[in-house]
Amino acid sequence: MSVSLPLRLVLASASPARRKSLQAAGIEPDVLVSGVDESLVVTERAEDLCLELARLKAQAVLTRLSPAADQRTLVIGCDSVLAFDGEILGKPADPADATRRWQRMRGRSGVLHSGHCLIDVTAGRRAEAVASTTVHFADISDDEIAAYVASGEPLAVAGAFTIDGLGGPFVERIEGDPGTVVGLSMPLLRRLLAELGLNITDLWTKIAPGGQSVEPLGSVRS
């Protein structure tokens, strides 16, 4: 006999931006950092690299979980890299590296790839894909680059830029889903959930008046 199970989503990432994206879409994830050494994966294709890292992050967190029998547990791993001038750019090594990158990128464009790996722990199934968005950078000045690098933000993110923080004014426009650049594409997550027989609305939560509790809005049939 099938029973209705509440969904639990575990985000295998320390990224505040990814968590905020989920929260803005009505999803309150648990967070468990994977601890994966990203330097261990080497490939010539940006799409392959970000997807393999997303997969490794999700699997690393999966091995540390003890799913409850009364929940259906999902793990989402994500990773982002920038493809620019035939190179794969993750996080800058240091401020000098971030400065050099911005001196090259300004006034030009690159493609931000974000790999997503969604594992249904309870059902033993997985869905994964890469979302890609073209980013057009503003032709910013040396002083702007210096100030941005000094803020520390470029050192913490793939490609040395954000669109949802201090780096937003330095991006002229994008072609694609903004969530891809932030690091988690909600439309892609919706499609991955559908591959596993789930609706994204099953993950919506409702905060009671006054914020006293969080009540699941959706559940699924197992």
The separation of the N and C termini measures: 9 Å
Architecture (CATH level 2) name: Alpha-Beta Complex
Mean pLDDT: 90
**Overall geometry:** elongated
**Portion of residues in helices?**
25-40%
How many domains in all? 1
State the name of the first-level CATH class: Alpha Beta
Radius of gyration, taken over Cα atoms and rounded to an integer in Å: 18 Å
Number of strands: 10
Number of helices: 6
Indicate the low-confidence ranges by residue numbers. 208-222
Would you tell me the structural class of the helices and strands?
A: alpha+beta
Major beta-sheet overview: 8 strands, mixed
Strand content: 25-35%
CATH-assigned fold name: Maf protein
The ordered H/E elements are EHEHEEHEEHEHHEEE
Any overview of this molecule?
This protein has 222 residues and is of the alpha+beta class. It has a single domain (4-221), classed as Maf protein (Alpha-Beta Complex). 28% of the residues lie in helices and 29% in strands. The protein is built from six helices and ten strands; from the N terminus they run βαβαββαββαβααβββ. The protein has helices at residues 16-24, 46-62, 95-105, 142-151, 178-182, 186-195; strands spanning 4-11, 30-31, 72-84, 87-89, 109-120, 125-137, 171-175, 205-207, 214-216, 219-221. Strands 1, 2, 3, 4, 5, 6, 7 and 10 form an eight-stranded mixed sheet that branches. Strands 8-9 form a two-stranded antiparallel sheet. Strand 1, helix 1 and strand 2 (30-31) form a beta-alpha-beta unit. Helix 3 (95-105) packs antiparallel against helix 4. The chain is elongated, with a radius of gyration of 18 Å. The N and C termini lie close together (9 Å). The model is unreliable at 208-222 (pLDDT under 50). InterPro entries: ITPase-like_fam, Maf-like. It is found in: Cytoplasm. Pfam families: Maf.
